[in-house]
Amino acid sequence: MAGELFAVSVLCFICLYGLIKKVDIFSAFSEGANDNAKVAFDIFPSLLFLLTAVSMLKACGVIELIADKLSFAFEWAGFPAQCLPLVLIRSISGSGALAVLNDILSDVSPDSFVGRVASVMMSSTETTFYTIAVYFAAAKAKCTGKTVIPAITADIFGFVFAVVFVRLLF
Predict the structure, then answer these.
(1) What are the domain boundaries of the chain?
(2) If 124 and its partner were Cys, which of 47, 70, 92, 158 is the partner (CB 3.0–4.6 Å)?
(3) Distance (Å, rounded) from C-alpha 132 to C-alpha 115?
């Protein structure tokens, strides 16, 4: 109820502000909607490619194969192997990562070490490649090199520190 009241209040404030400033509210809204539709149309090919690639990787089992091959090294380092599919998919797809998190939490308790690590990973990392694809397509920028490396580094730190902090705090 409070959220609905807040939304109505914001809309009323915007309308009153527009009336006070003598702005044609409908024209401003239509112009903004038109601009946003153009942006959505411009970024659609990037999103379609990314979603298709993620679906193909999941469907053919590449994510699970890579996780199986890397599990020994990660377990040796104290990283829960059950979280590897989440690490591999999180930077690409938020919905895919949510499905992986759901699988992890259905296999282990959410209050277990693995469940807590997976939950912290999910909340402390970003869908890096998805975000880069959307923003760079919207800005019509071609060079992403100076963005990708710091973004991936931040994700890696998010994954590592998720394990560290869950060990320290729980």
Answers:
(1) 36-169
(2) 158
(3) 28
pTM for the whole thing? 0.69
CA distance 64 to 84: 9
Per-residue pLDDT of 90-106, as tens digits, reads 988 888 888 889 989 99
Handedness of CA 87, 93, 98, 104 (dihedral sign): negative
More reliable by pLDDT, 108 or 2: 108
Task: Give 155's pLDDT tier (boundaries 50, 70, 90).
Answer: very high
Nearby residues of 117 by Cβ (< 8 Å), 6 or more positions away: 80, 83, 162, 163, 166
